[in-house]
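Appendix B. Extra example for self-study. Work through it before the problem class; the solution is given directly after the inputs so you can check yourself.
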Amino acid sequence: MSSERVATVRPIEESQASGKVAEIFADIRRTKNIDFVPLFWRTLAVNALELELVWTSLKRLMHPEAEGREGLLDAKTREIIALVVSATNGCSYCVNSHTTALRKLGLSTAALGEALAIAGLFNMTNALAEGFQIAPDVLPPLAD
Amino acid sequence: MSSERVATVRPIEESQASGKVAEIFADIRRTKNIDFVPLFWRTLAVNALELELVWTSLKRLMHPEAEGREGLLDAKTREIIALVVSATNGCSYCVNSHTTALRKLGLSTAALGEALAIAGLFNMTNALAEGFQIAPDVLPPLAD
Amino acid sequence: MSSERVATVRPIEESQASGKVAEIFADIRRTKNIDFVPLFWRTLAVNALELELVWTSLKRLMHPEAEGREGLLDAKTREIIALVVSATNGCSYCVNSHTTALRKLGLSTAALGEALAIAGLFNMTNALAEGFQIAPDVLPPLAD
Amino acid sequence: MSSERVATVRPIEESQASGKVAEIFADIRRTKNIDFVPLFWRTLAVNALELELVWTSLKRLMHPEAEGREGLLDAKTREIIALVVSATNGCSYCVNSHTTALRKLGLSTAALGEALAIAGLFNMTNALAEGFQIAPDVLPPLAD
Amino acid sequence: MSSERVATVRPIEESQASGKVAEIFADIRRTKNIDFVPLFWRTLAVNALELELVWTSLKRLMHPEAEGREGLLDAKTREIIALVVSATNGCSYCVNSHTTALRKLGLSTAALGEALAIAGLFNMTNALAEGFQIAPDVLPPLAD
Amino acid sequence: MSSERVATVRPIEESQASGKVAEIFADIRRTKNIDFVPLFWRTLAVNALELELVWTSLKRLMHPEAEGREGLLDAKTREIIALVVSATNGCSYCVNSHTTALRKLGLSTAALGEALAIAGLFNMTNALAEGFQIAPDVLPPLAD
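Solution. Structure tokens for the complete assembly:
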């Protein structure tokens, strides 16, 4: 009987990785400029196809510079989206990970608080709009 | 038998509003620079206390300039938080409302797509981190 | 291309029901004191076992008087729980159904607003507590 | 590598608080009649504006007597709403906090079980109504 | 101040159980072919009615063979549904419990990863479809 | 004022598509063996990168045969995962789409009801396990 969180599969150790998995691990360290492969990626690696799919998507959206492109949103905004989605869903691993990323990008504690306050506010208004079944009164313009 | 969404309470018409409610309706039109009071606020007005609480919170966080302050995050980032929280929760009224606000702020369709793609990505990673019960491998620095 | 909501299975008409399903339909009309079987139950009836399971659970918890027992919570509190859970999850059918039930029980529009305001408030605090990863500071007493 | 939950920001110690924050901390202790400031409030205090907004909303809705008003719902019903929303969202801090509050208000363990059983039931029916895309068959009366 | 998860009510010990509760505990051990009663059931037992309702539903849907019936879906598919719902909701107890059940049924780690990858994928598409408010373009046939 | 759901961006018409987008549209029609491109994909196409990312992921996980591989789970199980995740999140577009897919794969109405009943059941147990804060009593074996 334990309340400590332990992954339900055995993560791949970096030293065990080979082939495709080892390549992706190296790409993660390089792209994120970190000297270890986070547990999230070592866990996904139990299924190499899954690791590749998720990493490809995340790299493309969150590290466009690694592919010689620029994102339409800046890095801080992208990580704020990650944080507020994770707060809304209550994902502990994810909140910690994206808060760490935002610290590296220089977000102050007060600004972190503002982002979460706004996320909290709209979780409130979402429940109200659904709880009263309010129909949209104005549709957004389809401009481009 | 109807699938059309209709609010479960009778919204307050602008012409019916008096006292505190009328004041808040005027403040909404002025602060948001719009010439009507959206259905969301006219619905909350069935309970004046509720209208006041939600409007006060939203005005303070989303319209700091109306109180002579500056937010720590810019207006576009604030509305993006609103949108991605609403997309995560599946709130139809809210998605429409915040998309409209982002259009007014000049967000392009491609950037809107990028914001939602990132929100989608992290709804995926949230489910993965929870589905494997991954424990945080690194705690964010408590800087500040 | 249609945005009108239509059930993905063909609901059982009351006149078509026979055997177990007809018995449960009759029990629903009698227990809820209504003269039609709501679409929810006619839809579940596509799988008789499912209809029986959900109706048995709902009858036992929401209509204890029909089984000669009293609930520990009163009828209004029970329906308020149903409403705020449905608002939190954004279930349109359910919000309409439980608002209707609360009207029958005499809940005023202002009190409905208060219930939803409180539900909204705690959707906000939930996102904040998760967004900051706040650990419980006090465990509830295990009285009884 | 740790699975212990630790807040992502450094909470404000009660002895460190000054100005607006100290006033709110005192109001929390007085209004809730407790001799410490819970971690939730000390964490929000990293952004004084956020602390003020959330406390003002919570005090107004959950402690109307502190403002010389009466709520339309009683204290036990209000805390039950808080609990079932928190259970639905899976917020650990919040479930513990509101269970503690309900114990103080005298809710028995069996009644707590009934409240959660009802919350569980409607999380089930919500998924069913959405999973079959059932359209509302009856709209609530807009009486007042 | 503790982040360890502890149930908010005192679970019933197997040796303390009597009457209806003892019968259900015995049925759980027998039906699931395990030599202890999991904490989930011992916790629900604080309200005997609740224990009976949830166990009856779960036994009927998840252990049809115990009632001399066959399910329409096989045991592995049923447990996969349990797992992906739990991953989507972020329920720690449930993810652990259903992963254990899937191991017993012989699911490989790679297949577990595939199930969660698919669950992650559709949490992403759900957020996208809601975030763009996409209307159904094709309604399913009402065959049968 | 309208409650009809309309996408917040202008979907790309099939006849308008060119380059990368046209290629992906063709691949969608071919891989899914349908003669139109569903609204979901035409909407994502407002951002070509996003369209590519989501389609690549979905094709790889849901149509492995198109890449000369076999999935570890069969096609019906994969679509059931899609359906129950969508039911849990309340995504209307997605529930319709995956129900249609399951019909094509031959799932009977009764089996569809069983899948949703099981999804409903575990949404109930998830809320109960979280509402009582039950700690895992048994960790899954890390076999493989």
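Self-check: The radius of gyration of chain C is 19 Å. If your reasoning did not lead you there, revisit section 3.
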